[in-house]
Amino acid sequence: QGKFTLLRDTRTDGSFLVHHFLSFYLRAGCKVCFVALLQSFSHYNIVAQKLGVSLTAAKERGQLVFLEGLKSCLDLLFGEEEEQSGQPSPLQFISESASNLKALFDFVRTSLTPAGSDSWKGPVLLVDDLSVLLSLGATPVAVLDFIHYCRVAVCSQLKGNIVVLVHSNEDSEDEENELVANSLCHHSDLILWVEGLATGFCKDVHGQIKIIKRVSLELTAEQDVVQIYQYKIQDKNVTFFARGLSAAVL
Questions:
Q1: Does the predicted model carry a pTM greater than 0.70?
Q2: Number of Cβ atoms within 10 Å of the Cβ of 205
Q3: What family name appears in the similarity comment (predicted)?
Q4: CA 164, CA 90: separation in Å to the nearest integer?
Q5: Residues in Cβ contact with 180 at an 8 Å cutoff, skipping those fewer than 6 apart
Q6: Residues 76 and 7 sit within 8 Å (Cβ to Cβ)
Q7: Would you call 58 helix, strand, or coil by DSSP?
Q8: SS3 for 74?
């Protein structure tokens, strides 16, 4: 509880980790606020069904609060956004001159603050993917402020967890995105860094994952624990193995 997990991908797609955490927390009985900026609800629902979880059922019972970023953006841009109960759209900053993510933070806080009848185990904020906010016009400072306030509200006050995906590319000229990704690395309790293979595509090894446990954050003068595995994504699960020890090699 109270942990911030950063999912970072370079030269590959790390979205399989988002699907894992989404189904994991729903099965565990947690209240989940999913800020989905990259794909539609039906996309996440189809993958979740393969993993044995129904997002539609989770929404109906109030366990999952789903913000469909693609739809909200279109509604805002074409003026079809209806204010719900007098509240502005969570992505209101798109149509305003000020890059202010306060409306998005208010949406998250309202969604995860427990009501009297709630019996969920703990709140979870899941964001896929933070880089999209920069593409929509938010400044790096606004995005980092948003994450900071979410950490205070969700991790510190509500004793919940936050899982955030951010794309990165060392060779990219997108300095704002790299600034956000590197800044979040310094604040994370756990970093799952997915990278494509330096040697290129391989049908038996899809990439490698670096698991960094930030022991140094606890001020114990210990080094961070780093583990590196390679992985292969299958239809319903992912297999991990030590580098160079895939079944194809052996």
A1: yes
A2: 20
A3: Belongs to the ELP6 family.
A4: 17
A5: 130, 131, 134, 140, 143, 144, 166
A6: no
A7: helix
A8: helix
